[in-house]
Specification:
CATH class of the largest domain: Mainly Alpha
Oligomer: single chain
Helix content: 55-70%
Number of strands: 4
Strand content: 5-15%
Bound molecules: zinc ion
CATH architecture of the largest domain: Up-down Bundle
Number of domains: 2
Structural class: alpha+beta
Largest sheet: 4 strands, mixed
Number of helices: 8
CATH superfamily of the largest domain: Cation efflux protein transmembrane domain
Distance between the termini: 45 Å
Shape: elongated
């Protein structure tokens, strides 16, 4: 179901991406078959990566939206990372395939054939990709879906590399420089490799419970300090991301004889402030009486 104010739901956009990638893949493969260009071949292979990526995003979005259950009490948000790691591996494989093909072409150059229609088909595929990439980024932002925004940005880098290939092939045809085509393929492969590595790195960070970045950590500390009136200090602050969710936990030291009621009031105030400032924050606070408080961890304590 589409949310209020937006035309499409994340699931519809994810399925739209699969359809667009299939179309683009078909067009680009045709363009390669017509021209024999290894540059256009690398471009077509890149579209297989996009197809895999959009399938991964669709799976991630449908899994992610499953509510927490008995077996997965923290929700299913990490599904997004698993699909992104798979996507990264596929991207790396595609890059390797291009390296192999480009090396062969460099050793045994093939003449480029009837290029014009091929180039037009490839350009049409590029336009389709570009329009869809803009849609994904726009609606992804509206729907607050990092997976869709990332997919759109990823598509956009493909549009740029396709453009580079088209310009290069035209140049190769005009100048008769055979080696330009495989050289472009190498460049595309390197770019694809870089994208794949970035995806794998980010997703592994998420799977390994990487903390929030410095800036967000400082924001969290400031909010805790500003809303903990009545408490003495906070320590052992730990954070981690799981997809769109930010888990935050820490110990709050209160005067030894404060009532549970009052300590809980303070906790609720901090929780509300954190949840308002940080999207999808899940906060757990462990309350300690002053006379039972222990030494804080290496990061020290926040005195209130
Ligand atoms: Zn403690
Ligand atoms: Zn409570």
């Amino acid at each position: 179901m589409a949310r209020q104010g937006t035309l499409f739901s994340p699931k519809q956009l994810a399925i739209g991406s699969i359809v667009v990638s299939l179309l683009v893949l078909g067009l680009k493969y045709l363009a390669y078959a017509m021209t024999n260009s290894v540059g256009l071949y690398s471009d077509a292979l890149e579209s297989i990566v996009n197809l895999a990526a959009s399938i991964a995003v669709a799976i991630a979005i449908s899994l992610r939206d499953k509510p927490a259950d008995h077996n997965h009490p923290y929700g299913h948000d990490k599904a997004e990372y698993i699909s992104a790691v798979l996507e990264g591996v596929l991207i790396v494989l595609a890059a390797l395939a291009i390296f192999v093909e480009a090396s062969e072409t460099l050793l045994n150059p093939r003449p480029l054939q009837i290029p014009i229609l091929g180039l037009v088909l490839n350009a049409a595929a590029g336009v389709l990709n570009g329009v869809w990439a803009l849609m994904l980024v726009r609606y992804g932002r509206k729907l607050r879906s990092p997976a869709l925004v990332a997919d759109g940005k990823h598509l956009f880098t493909d549009v740029l590399s396709s453009l580079g290939i088209l310009i290069g092939i035209t140049f190769a045809l005009l100048t008769g420089l055979d080696w330009l085509d495989p050289l472009l393929a190498f460049l595309v492969a390197a770019m694809i490799l870089w994208t794949g590595w970035g995806l794998i790195r980010n997703s592994l960070g998420g799977l390994m419970d990487e903390a929030v970045d410095e800036e967000e950590l400082e924001q969290i500390q400031t909010i805790i300090m500003a809303h903990a009136d009545g408490a003495i200090e906070a320590h052992d602050l730990r954070t981690r991301h799981a997809g769109r969710i930010t888990f935050i936990e820490f110990h709050l030291v209160v005067p030894s004889h404060m009532t549970v009621f009052n300590a809980h009031e303070i906790c609720d105030k901090i929780e509300d402030a954190l949840e308002e400032a940080i999207q999808n924050a899940h906060v757990v606070i462990h309350v300690e009486p002053e006379n039972k408080a222990h030494e804080p961890d290496a990061d020290g304590s926040m005195v209130i």
